[in-house]
């Protein structure tokens, strides 16, 4: 295949993935008109339309979807191998893109990455905070962080944290107005601070477990957030009960700003794992990052 055809396929991949000629042109460093001309030329040579264009968006046709699914992984493998060859130098280098939830980014990733990046200035890390179960292959991330039981079976997973426990807390001021719940079922009569998760398409149902009996409770209250820190602040301000990771509340409990309840019902979950596609050739930088994050008990 002629060299220009490779360039045309790369242009098609960029537009199909970005869903925009403007964004793809910026990523490729070419003008929008030049990129549009390239795509029209590719479609003309193939004799089939690859992209559907509207005033608001660009999306692959059926033929475009087929081409994207076929050549996309192959171009990724080529790019990964070229990056690996480029790292046959004295120092690991390159950019590592990671998707992670808010809690794991703050408590696990950043504390361990800070000294690593100081030692290896040629390594760059991009962390995207997303509490959804992001498809790292489709979104071209090098790795992701999830709780152990959420990692897909076809991924390589490395434990980076111990098991974690949840907690239900509220401020002393709140409990001065309302009696503490004795069982999870009593939460339905309390003001609770909700968490919205994109993976559930709605509000998170609080999960409990005792003596092998699992229970989920859908709670109600004045406030809904999609991140943990605002939930913690609202609980400290007396707006209701919060369901949070234990390590987030321990200091506040020890200093009397929060009170724990339902401790015998709060489950222990598998700790965080770093995961990445099994087919991907790990770069020296990613290998070093994995070793840095690996939990050793």
Strand and helix map with partners:
Elements lengths: L2 H16 L2 H8 L3 H15 L4 E3 L4 E3 L1 H25 L7 E7 L1 H18 L3 E7 L13 E5 L7 E5 L4 E7 L1 H6 L16 E4 L4 E2 L2 E5 L2 E5 L6 E2 L2 H9 L5 E4 H9 L4 E3 L6 E2 L2 E6 L6 H10 L4
Parallel strand pairs: 3-4, 3-5, 8-12
Antiparallel strand pairs: 1-2, 5-16, 6-16, 7-13, 7-14, 7-15, 8-9, 10-11
What's the number of domains?
3
Biggest sheet strand order reads 4-3-5-16-6
Principal-axis shape: elongated
Strand content: 15-25%
- CATH class descriptor of the largest domain: Alpha Beta
Total beta-strand segments: 16
Major sheet: 5 strands, mixed
What CATH calls the topology of the largest domain is D-Maltodextrin-Binding Protein, domain 2
Radius of gyration: 24 Å
Number of helices: 9
Q: How are helices and strands ordered from N to C?
A: HHHEEHEHEEEEHEEEEEHEHEEEH
- N→C terminal distance: 52 Å
Provide mean pLDDT, rounded. Answer: 89
CATH architecture annotation of the largest domain = 3-Layer(aba) Sandwich
Structural class call reads alpha+beta
Estimate percent helicity: 25-40%
Low-confidence stretches: none
């Amino acid at each position: 295949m002629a060299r220009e055809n490779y360039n045309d396929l790369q242009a098609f991949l960029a537009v199909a993935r970005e869903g925009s000629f403007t964004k793809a042109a910026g990523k490729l460093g070419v003008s929008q008109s030049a990129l549009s001309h390239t795509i029209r030329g590719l479609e003309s040579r193939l004799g089939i339309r690859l992209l559907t264009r509207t005033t608001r968006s660009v999306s692959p046709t059926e033929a475009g979807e087929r081409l994207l699914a076929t050549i996309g992984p192959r171009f990724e493998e080529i790019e990964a191998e070229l990056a690996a060859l480029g790292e046959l130098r004295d120092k690991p280098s390159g950019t590592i893109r990671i998707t992670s939830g808010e809690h794991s980014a703050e408590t696990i990733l950043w504390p361990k990455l800070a000294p690593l990046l100081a030692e290896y200035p040629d390594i760059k890390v991009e962390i995207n905070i997303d509490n959804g179960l992001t498809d790292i292959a489709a979104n071209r991330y090098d790795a992701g962080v999830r709780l152990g039981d959420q990692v897909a079976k076809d991924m390589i997973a490395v434990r980076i944290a111990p098991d974690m426990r949840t907690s239900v807390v509220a401020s002393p001021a709140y409990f001065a107005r309302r009696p503490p719940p004795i069982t999870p079922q009593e939460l339905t009569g309390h003001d609770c601070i909700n968490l919205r998760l994109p993976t559930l398409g709605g509000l998170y149902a609080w999960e409990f477990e005792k003596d092998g009996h699992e229970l989920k409770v859908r709670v109600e209250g004045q406030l809904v957030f999609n991140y943990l820190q605002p939930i913690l602040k609202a609980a400290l301000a007396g707006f209701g009960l919060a369901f949070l990771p234990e390590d987030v509340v321990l200091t506040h409990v020890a200093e009397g700003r929060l009170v724990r309840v339902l401790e015998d019902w709060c489950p222990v979950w598998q700790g965080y794992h770093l995961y990445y596609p099994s087919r991907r050739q790990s770069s020296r930088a990613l290998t070093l990052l994995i070793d840095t994050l690996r939990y050793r008990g």
